[in-house]
Write a structure and sequence with these properties.
The chain has 12 helices and 14 strands. It is of the alpha/beta class and 318 residues long. It has 2 domains: 233 residues, Rossmann fold (3-Layer(aba) Sandwich), CATH 3.40.50; 61 residues, Alpha-Beta Plaits (2-Layer Sandwich), CATH 3.30.70. α4 crosses α5. It starts with a helix and ends in an 8-residue tail after the last helix. Bound molecules: adenosine-5'-triphosphate. GO terms for molecular function: ATP binding; ATP hydrolysis activity.
Amino acid sequence: MLRKFLYRACVQAGGMIEVRGVYKSFGKARVLEDVSFSVRNGEVVGFVGLNGAGKTTTIRITVGVLPPDAGDVFIDGYSVSEDKVEASARVGWVPELPIFESEYRALDYFAYLAGYYGYSEGEARRLGRELFERVGIGEAANKRLEEFSQGMKKRFALAVSLINDPPNFLFDEVLNGLDPQGIAFFRGLVQEFRKAGKAVLFSSHILSEVEGLADRVVFIHRGRIVGTYTMDEIRRRASGELLVSVSPLDDGAASIAAKYGEPEKRGNALAVKGFSGDPSSLVAELVAAGYRVAEVKRSEKSLEEFFFELVGLRGDGA
Ligand SMILES: Nc1ncnc2c1ncn2[C@@H]1O[C@H](COP(=O)(O)OP(=O)(O)OP(=O)(O)O)[C@@H](O)[C@H]1O
C-alpha cells in the first residue's frame, strides 16, 4: 500500500513497467527464466530477441493475459497478479497478430469494445472515428474486420489500445506488417508518448528496426535477459574498431590508442575496439610521438553483429 502511495506521489502522468523475476514454462519446456527489467516514464525501450526467445510470452504476462509461474509484473506499482484490474487498465497492448471478431464492421466492433471503458454508444462512435483518423484507417470504418489486411488490423488494435489513453504501452512486433507510411506514423506516435511521459516497450527481432526509436534496448535470448544497453552505448560499441597499422607496434603506441578505445595487437596492427573520436587525431598523436602510421581503416560492426555477438551466435544464426 505504502509502495503504491509513494509510487503515485513520484509518478503522476507517466507510466512505469517493472518485470520482476518472471519464470514461465509450457509443459516441460522452460520459456522464461528470471526475467527482470523495467521501463520508466518517458522511456521507449526496445525488447529484442530472436524468434522464440520469449518476447511475446513476456509481453502477454505483462499485460495480464498469461499468468507467470513465479515472479510478478508491476504496472504503475499495481501487481498484474494481485491488482489485475488496476494494472491492466493502465496498459495498452498491440499484439503481434491481432485477432478480432472478423464478421463485425470496424467501427461497430470498436464501439462494442469501448463500452467496456464506460463509453456510451454515441461517444464510442465519435471516439472511434477520431482514433481511426489518427491511426490512418478512417476510410475503413465501415469495412468488416475480415477484409482488413494485417497492417490495418495492427492499426485497428492501436486505435483500441488508445481508448483509455493509458500511461503504459506494449507493442509486440508492431512494425512488422506496417507499410513505410505506417512505420513513419508509429515513429511519430512513439515520440508523442515519450513527450507525454508514457512508458513504452516494443518488441522486435531486428535490432536495426529499433534504432532511431528506442532509448534503451533489453536483449532476451532463450528466455533469459542477456543485456540492457542504452542506444548510445550500442552505437558506441557497434561503431566498431579502428585498425591502425603502426610501427613500432609497442606498448607506447597502445597507450596512446587507449585514449580512443580499447586497443589490442592484431597481426602487425592495433585494433582499437569501441573507437570514439577522430582517427586523424590519433594518427597525429602517434606521429608526434615518433611512430610511423601506414594505414588506418574502420571496421564497421553492424548493429546486428553486436546483437549476435551478445547472444553468442554468428551472423547466420548458427
Ligand atoms: N502456448 C504455448 N504453448 C507452448 N509453447 C509455447 C506457447 N507459447 C509460446 N511457446 C513457446 O515459447 C517459446 C517462446 O515463444 P515466444 O512467442 O514468447 O517468442 P518470441 O520471442 O515472441 O518469438 P517471435 O519473435 O517468433 O514472435 C517458443 O519456444 C514457443 O514455441
